Amino acid sequence: xxxxxxxxxxxxxxxLNARIVDFGGWDMPVQYSSQIGEHHAVRRGAGVFDVSxxxxxxxxxxxxxxxxxxxxxxxxxxxxSLGKALYSCMxxxxxxxxxxxxxxxxxxxxxxxxxxxxxxxxDLAWITAQAQPFAVQVSERSDLALLAIQGPEARAKAAQILxxxxxxxxxxxxxxxxxxxxxxxxxxxxxxxxxxxxIMMPAADAVPAWRSLNALGVASCGLGARDTLRLExxxxxxxxxxxxxxxxxxxxxxxxxxMTPRERGFVGRAAxxxxxxxxxxxxxxxxxxxxxxxxxxxxKVIVPSVGEGAITSGTFxxxxxxxxxLARVPAATAERVQVDIRGKLLSARVVKPPFVRFGKSxxx
Amino acid sequence: MSQLPADLKYTKSHEWVRALADGTVEIGIxxxxxxxxxxxxxxxxxQAGRKVQAxxxxxxxxxxxxxxxxxxxxxGEITGGNPKLAAEPEAVNTSPYRxxxxxxxxxxxxxLAAAALMPAAEYQKVLDAEGG
Lengths: 364, 132
Description:
heterodimer, A: 364 residues, alpha+beta, Gyrase A, domain 2, 6-stranded mixed β-sheet, 6-stranded antiparallel beta barrel, globular, B: 132 residues, 3-stranded antiparallel β-sheet, 4 helices
C-alpha cells in the first residue's frame, strides 16, 4: 500500500488507535473509537480534529488586495477589520469552482488563504501564476499544523491551553475573526455548525497541544465525524457538492458571490453573469429521507413530472437519527422527491439547509 | 483482536454460519467485519421465502460511512430476517454473533456440504493474511 503524506500528528493518531485512511493523498484518521460517539462529542461538548492536511498559503505584496479581488468570486474589500475572514469560491473562466477557501485579512499587504488538501497542488500552481502580474509573493505554510477544536465547550477548553493573556484575547474574538496570539494563529471558525476555534501552530506544538486538550476532556475526532457534522450544518464539501464542472448558483453558493460592484472583474465573472441572466436550470437542495435507508452521493433523485437529479452528499445524521443529504436537482423542484436506493424508490422531503445548528435540529 | 466462536463456520467474505437444531442455519457478519464497517445505522435483510444462491448479495449493512453487501454463504431459501435490526442496527456492532444475526436460511439439498465454509482457525488465517 502506498504511503501518503502525513501530518505532524500522524504518530499520535496511530498511538490513539485511529483508523487511518487515504484522504486526497494524505494518511488521515477517519475515526478513533466510534464515529457517532465523536460526532456527539462535538455537538454536546468538545472535540479536536487534525486538519493539518489543509493548505495554508500566505500572500504578501503591496497589490495583494487588488490581486485577490480578481482571483476570488467573493470580494475581500468586504473585510474591513484586521483578522476578519471571508468564505469564497475561486472559479475558472467558465464559472466552475476550482476550490472553496477561507481568506483572512491580516494586513494591508498580507492575506492568508486556507484551501483544500485535495486541490493543494493545482491551487498553488494557479494562484502562483495569477499572482505574478501583481508581484504578490505566494508562500505555502507547510511549517504549520492546523487543529480544529469544535463544540459548545470548545472555546473554554482551548483557552486553557493558551497563556492567560492570549486566552483572554482568544475568548474575545468575534465569530469569523482570527488573530496571531504569540506563536499561534487562533481563529473563531469551523466546519461543524458549532462554535469553536481553528488554531494554526508550529508543527512541533501540535502533539503537546492535542494531548493537553485530551486531558481537558476534548475528544479526539476523525474525518468521519467531521463529514457528518458538516453535512448536518449544511456545508458543502469540495469534490462532492461542487467542482470545476459546476458553478456556484447550482451549488448552493450564490450567497458567496459578490456581483457588485459591477466593475470588479474577477475570474469567472462573465460566465456567472450569463448564468444569472438566464437563470440556473439546477439548484442544490437539502433532502430529508422519510423512509428507512441512507442517502449516498450519486444516487438518482427523481422529481415527479419535473426531471431528475443526483445526491451529491448523503449520510446518516447522528443528531436527527435519520438520513440527510444534499442533491443537485432541476430548479423547478418543489417539496417532494424520490430517491433510487438499490432499485427501490424511497421518498424524501426537500428542506433548506442547515439541518442542525448549535446542537439543535432545524428540521421537523 | 477479533473473537471467533469455535462452533461457527466462516466465509472469506466475513460472514458466519451457525447450524440450528431444526436444520436451518443462522447467518451474520463477523466481529472483524462489524469493526471494519464502524457504527451501523441501517440493515436491510431479505424477505422470508426468497431463494438465494451461494455468493449472491442478499443483505445490506450500512455504517455512517458506507453501504456493504452481505453474501449468502450457501444456497437455500430464506426463512426470515432478524426483525430487531430495523430499530437496532447497532446490535450487529455490540453482539455480532448473537443478537446481531442477520438472517436464517433453509439450505438447499446438499448445499451445506457444498459450501466453502471454514472453521475458526482457518478463518483466523484469512484475517492474519489481511493484516487484521
